[in-house]
Design brief:
Rossmann fold, 2 domains, alpha/beta, 13 helices, single chain, seven-stranded mixed sheet
Amino acid sequence: MEVKKRATREAFGEEILKLGKTDKNICVIDADIGNSCKTTAFAKELPAQHVNVGIAEQNAAGLAAGLATTGKIPFITTYAVFGSLRMAEQIRQTICYPNLNVKIACSHGGLTPANDGASHQSIEDMGVLRTFPNMTVVMGADFNSTKKLVEQAYKMYGPVYLRFTRDAIPVIYDENETFEIGKAKKLSEGEDVVIIANGDTVHLAMEAVKKLGEEGITAKLFDMHTIKPIDRDAILESIKVGRIVTVEDHNIINGLGSAVSEVVAEEGGAKVRRIGVMDQFGQSAPYEVLLEINGITVENIVAKAKELIGA
């Protein structure tokens, strides 16, 4: 049976248009890549709610901050590498410091830009932005969860960073599934090991759970779609098992693995193995090859889990 795949940036494009039609305070601020960020339909159907600032992400942040002070709900759209790093100072000073209601919605997260190369592969973004006070950091695991999480971000007040994939990834959730920002989604129960994944690695973790099950090893699995605020209760539940593997399409430094490890270090009682981008830049190559180079594979998840339990 062929697995349906869709890029999560497409989910954002559909959802922001729907939301924009229901709330005229929503506006999209493009950095001249609306086609890539899937906001061209929004611009066409809701031109009074759309601004293209050109290739000027720092200006987009300032404009968004100003609009937010008037009651508007701006969604800045650009590539993740620019929406996090090029805009970092403006996000900190003009959006997070005054705690304004600005959403930063970025496509091309992680290694998914693939053949675009290291300059466009955003492997540090969630780690950088989770250090800013007042910022919420979110990445959906598939098309359907991303739509729900975009809606959640719209409904909550405050700065939110939403990270999307460029490439199509498997659809794993039903369109009627519910999600809550800050609350991890438990996908399986298990007593031997816990796997905590997010974004485009969740489907890999699901396959790893199946393979472990075939060997008689039960694995609890969490989709930790929100990196900040991290779901502490889910991690405390994981600590009771004592063995945790984290999986992410992000530098293993300061991403999901680090966020989980911080809680584990404070509480004690568990060992953690982190799988992610191995503190190295990417290169121009197919997405699957880049994942393999960094050990972000089903086989490595299984291996790390078995290593922890001594199997």
